[in-house]
Structures are given as C-alpha cells and as structure tokens.
Amino acid sequence: MIEIICAIVIGIFIGIFTGLIPGIHVNTICAILLSLIATHIYLDIGPFVLIAFISSLAITHTFFNIIPGLFLGIPGDSTFALLPGHSLVKNGYGELAIRISVIGSLLGLVVGLFFIAILFAGNITQAIQKYLPDYIFYILVLVSVILILSEKNRLNSLFVFSASGLLGILIFNTPIVPSQDAPIGSIFPALTGLFGISGLIWSLYTLEKDEKSNSNKKQNIIYMETLLPSIRGGIAGFIVGILPGLGGANAATLLLLIEKWLGKRNDKDYEDRSYKITTSSLNTSESIIAIVSLYFIQKSRSGASVAIAQILNYDMTYLEFKVILFAIIFAGILSTVLLWKSGPVIAKKIQKYNYPGLNWSLIVFLLSLVIMLFGIGGLAVILSATIVGLLPFIFNVRKGQLMGFFLVPVMIYFSGWGRTIYDFIKINQRHPPTEIINEYLILVSLIISSLFSFFIYYFIVKKKINYKQHHLHAEKAMYSIFFCAVLSLIISLFI
C-alpha cells in the first residue's frame, strides 16, 4: 500500500510538471515508461504501482494544464473570440480563471465518479458494446455537421475541417514516422503542430504590445453558478470518453454554443466564466472515463489508458480497477488543494517572464525534439500539421474544426467504405519508419532540446526585441514553415 501511495504522489508531481510545461504531455511520459518496460529497465516494480502512477499523472495533468494556456502566448484581439477563456486573463482576472478552473475540474471528478457508479449498475456497458458501433458513424457525422454549421463562415469552416481530416487520413494510414500505435508515434508531432506550434507562432504574429497583462484584479467567485456548467462539462466528458473519434475540442465547441445560448440573458463575463468551468470539468471527466473504459468496454480511449492496457496485457481485474479508482480520487483531491493554493502564485511568477521569448523557446524545443526523435519524417509531419493548425486563425474559425483530424478517419472506418477510399489515396514510401524509439534517445533528445530552448530564451531577452520585430519574425517563420514542409515531404516520400 505504501508503494502505491508513493507512486501516486510521484505521479502527481510529474503531472504538475507535464501540465505546466507546454509540449510535454502525459503521452510523452507514458511512452518513456513503456520504453523502459519494453527494455526491462524498471526493476521489479509491480503493475499496481505502475497503473497508480499513470492514473494520478493523467488526472493531475488535467488540473494544471490550464496555466500555460491562460498565461503563455496570449493571442491578440483578433483571436480572443475563438478562445473565450483567455479573455478573463486579458481583462485582469487571471487568479479568478485559475480558481474557477479548479472548481470545474473537482466537480468534473465528482461527475466522472458518478458515471462510473452508473456503469456498474444494470447492463449499460453491454448495451454500449452491442449498439454503439452501429450508430457511431451517424453520430460523428451529425456532430461534424453541427460544428461546421455553427460557424459564421461556413465555407471556411468546411475547408479547415476537411484539411485537418485529410491530414489525419494521410498520417494515420501512410505514416512517414512510426504509426500512432508505437510508444511515441505520429500522433505526437501531428498534435504538436496542430495545437502547439501553430498557436505559439500566431500569438507572436498578433502580438500587439510589450505590456504584461494584469492578473491581479479581484473578483468574488459565485459558487452556485459553477454547478450547472460543471455538470454539463462532466456529461460531455463522459460522452467523449466513450465515443471514439469525438475529441474534447469538439465537445468544448458544442458546449460553447450552449453557453452562448444559455448566457443570452447574462453578461459576456458570465459566459466566459461558465465556459472555463465547463471545459475544465470536461477535461477531468473525460480523462477519468477514458481510463476506466478499459475495464468497462475493453477499449483504450487515451494515451494513459493505452499504457495501462499494455502493462496489464489488456486484461484489467476488479482489484486493479480499484487501485486506479483510488489513485484518481487521491490525485484529484490533492491536485485541487495544490492548484488552489499555488495557482495564483505560479501565474504571478509567469507574468515576470518574457512572453515572446517563452514562445520562441517553446517552438525551438518542440521542433528540435521532434527532429531528434523522428528525423526528416517527423519534421515533415510537424510542419505540415502546423500549416493546417494556422488555418483557423487565417480563416477566422474555431480551432475545434481541427478535430476533423480525428473525426474524418474514424468516420471513414465506421462507414464501411474505408478500403475503397484508402486504396484510392494510398501513398507508397520507399523506407518504412523505425517502430522503436528507445528510452535513451528520448532522454537525450529532451535534454538537448531543453538546452536549445534555454539558449534561445536567453538570447531573445538579452537582445530586447520589440513586438514589431517579433511580428516580422513570426511572419517570416510562417513562410519558412510552408517551404520546409514541402521540401521535407518530398525528401521523406521520394528520396
């Protein structure tokens, strides 16, 4: 029991680290852990300890990963309509944003546990396994149509959704790096480009002033208004955790529409607060359901659940399920206390750093990490994904449309036309990617990438580059990304 508690505590602190450092995800830590297990460099650690560590890591990450999103690389005015939660920080309510996010995540934990209790009652899991596959295609099509039609610029939305869908088809079915089933596969550089580097570059391109945003304004939390958004987010998290292909960004976009409709009689600040609570609840609830779905429906719905499945050989017992449940509850409660106390302090510390410098250093870190892990093929994937990730900003649509990356391949799979479509667009490569990336390469790559990023940050701070120069460099970087993406794709596929 002591070993399990120690593993949970370590998982919590690693989860704080992955939450606070953009680009370092739960999947990265799980991939390193799986590599250690595959090479038998994990001594005699039992499966109970490992699954407790992974579960606490995954839950803690959902609490702390809101801080980089709120306080690093805040975009200019033109993109705040796409990211309502950021307007709280822009208006000076950074501390409030953290506190209501903590409440949302905690209530999302409660809602997730409620759904676990429901899954134990009756034959719900059997019904899900029996009837759900027949309707997934139609459900996902309906969700996709709603997402596209909910935009003011529907043609632009359709274009971005289709572009991300095509990217998903190409990466998942003709990989030029290890496939998504590998410990660290194509999903890492693809998502890093779609949702990481693209946002960082655009925030530099839309940088409007050198002033740091004020996050010290005080506003009292109205606790009663947190309940319903948390319940909505928790329910959405359950649905996302069960349905394949439906991502948190899709659910968040749908919930944003609901919040706008419900908030018509309220002010814009209420809508922003409600959206932040809802998405925080969604993230935590989804993470819980994605892990326990391995027990109920024998399906992995997240990187953490894939790692747990491989550790347990895809056969989770009731005792192992109880260990996971204990780790989830323990991590959720402790994360609540830690973030409630330390979140505002962390946010104030972040305000002291050079925002453009942090953005550039993170871009260098992510690019160098992908290049060292995947070579020219990884560079082709991350740059291509970055180009697609910039499209929502350019065409003024929500970034949730990028979830076509997941939705389109899954819809094709469940449509029954997959073979015909993939045979039509299939691309043959001359050199298949290596499937194994060992733990030594991962560790060395992380160290070297970190050193590069620290050097870039130090250089930018010393140079005292103003916002106009950052804007110019970001514009040049976008053109360079397009050119390098084309070149690296040609090299990967034909040379």
How confident overall, as mean pLDDT?
76
Q: Oligomeric form of this entry?
A: single chain
**How many beta-strand segments?**
0
Q: What form results from the Cα inertia axes?
A: globular
Helix proportion: over 70%
How would you briefly describe this protein structure?
The chain is built from 19 helices and no strands. With 495 residues, it is mainly alpha-helical.
What does this structure look like?
- This protein has 495 residues and is mainly alpha-helical.
- The chain has one domain (2-213, 224-494).
- Helix content is 75%, strand content 0%.
- It is built from 19 helices and no strands.
- It has helices at residues 2-20, 26-38, 47-64, 66-71, 86-90, 94-120, 124-149, 154-173, 187-205, 227-242, 248-262, 268-296, 303-311, 318-351, 355-395, 404-415, 418-425, 439-463, 467-494.
- α3 (47-64) runs antiparallel to α13 (303-311), α7 (124-149) crosses α16 (404-415) and α10 (227-242) packs parallel to α12 (268-296).
- The longest helix is centred in the last third of the chain and has 41 residues, at 355-395.
- It is globular and about 60 Å long.
- Residues 73-82 and 428-434 have low confidence and may be disordered.
Looking at this protein, list some descriptive labels:
495 residues, mainly alpha, globular
Write the layout of secondary structure elements.
Blueprint: H1 2-20, H2 26-38, H3 47-64, H4 66-71, H5 86-90, H6 94-120, H7 124-149, H8 154-173, H9 187-205, H10 227-242, H11 248-262, H12 268-296, H13 303-311, H14 318-351, H15 355-395, H16 404-415, H17 418-425, H18 439-463, H19 467-494
Helix pairs in contact: 1-3, 1-14, 2-13, 3-12, 3-13, 3-14, 6-10, 6-12, 6-14, 7-16, 8-15, 8-16, 9-15, 9-19, 10-11, 10-12, 11-12, 12-13, 12-14, 15-18, 15-19
